[in-house]
Amino acid sequence: MSIEPGSLHLSNVSFAVGERLLVRDISLDVAPGEMIGLLGPNGAGKSSLLRTIYRTNRPSSGTVLVNGRNVWQQSASWAARHVGAVLQDMPADFPLTVRDVVAMGRSAHKKLLEGDSAHDRALIEAALELLQLVPLHGRLFRTLSGGERQRVLVARALVQQPAVLVLDEPTNHLDIHHQLQLLRFVQSLGITVIAALHDLNLAAMFCDRLCLLHHGEMEALGTPEEVLTTDNLARVFRVEATLTRNPRTNSVWVMPA
Ligand SMILES: Nc1ncnc2c1ncn2[C@@H]1O[C@H](COP(=O)(O)OP(=O)(O)OP(=O)(O)O)[C@@H](O)[C@H]1O
Predict the structure, then answer these.
(1) What region holds the ABC transporter domain (predicted)?
(2) What Cα–Cα distance (Å) separates residue 15 from each residue in 53, 128, 137?
């Protein structure tokens, strides 16, 4: 499956609820094919920021451009065709099969009630295959484990063929094998990704750059080496940590004490 990677430019994005500013003045340029990890402690504003990209939180100020277009000035269906999102804890209380859920990813590319074309079917089959969902394709989505559901939701996002893929804690329900498998897989696609991640070591292994949020503000942006410093970890996460390297991948490895 090939997906044309797009660009993402956030410029001075803020998001407020009432008087409270949850995201403050975030600017970030993501190049086509880049994978950005969004880090920060609980409540730092990661999900709030990601929602401004997939058109759920309208920024109070600033702009979000995908492929040079302001997503908030495009139609909802334009946004659905260009921005894919995999979120934590999606509702599952509906009688749809795995294949139905994956096929829903094509809906933004079609007119209301239009059936699946040969192209749609080929994309759906390819996504089921890639995420090892063929044996599960007829199962009801609500009967799947958390990890299986997460794979289905990634497959659904991929058939959208999004210019930018937003992942909000995509490895939340996954065991370590499936965490690695999912991130390796997403990385191998060469698509543009912005992902909120809690595991600092996985973020360092898979992301080109990391963006560290604290109280809604950007505290650091750069390579994993630049962002995962003992100072940043102490200040933002309130942990004392020793930094080393993963001997196999050579990526930064954080050892909290
Ligand atoms: N709609 C809302 N109304 C009021 N406060 C909100 C709203 N959405 C989020 N918040 C608050 O904004 C802050 C940031 O929340 P957000 O979910 O963006 O953080 P996060 O970095 O994704 O956290 P976590 O790692 O725990 O998922 C939190 O204090 C949260 O309670």
Answers:
(1) 8-240
(2) 11, 36, 39
Show Cβ contacts of residue 189 under 8 Å, excluding neighbours closer than 6 positions: 1, 3, 158
Q: Would the pLDDT of 23 be above 90?
A: yes
**Is residue 40 within 6 Å of ligand 1 at its C-beta?**
yes
91 vs 10 pLDDT, higher one:
10
Please tell me if the CB atom of residue 47 comes closer than 6 angstroms to any atom of ligand 1: yes
Ligand 1 within 6 A of CB of 17: yes
Ligand 1 within 6 A of CB of 24:
no
105 lines ligand 1 (CB under 6 A): no
Within 13 Å and on the Cβ side, how many CA atoms surround 65? Answer: 13
**ipTM attached to this prediction:** 0.97
How far away, in angstroms, is 253 Cα from ligand 1 center? 27
- Taking only the tens place, the pLDDT of each residue in 84-130 is 999 876 777 788 999 999 999 998 887 777 788 889 999 999 999 98
Model-level pTM? 0.94
Ligand 1 center to residue 248 CA distance, Å?
A: 36
Atom of ligand 1 nearest to the CA of 213: 21
Reported as a single tens digit per residue, the pLDDT across 146-190 is 889 989 999 999 999 999 999 999 888 788 988 898 899 899 989
Q: Cα angle at 188 between 182 and 191, to 5 degrees?
A: 100
Q: Where are the alpha helices (DSSP H) in the chain?
A: 46-53, 76-82, 98-104, 118-130, 146-159, 176-188, 200-206, 224-227, 230-237
Task: List, in order of start, the domains of the chain with CATH numbers.
Answer: 8-227 (3.40.50.300)
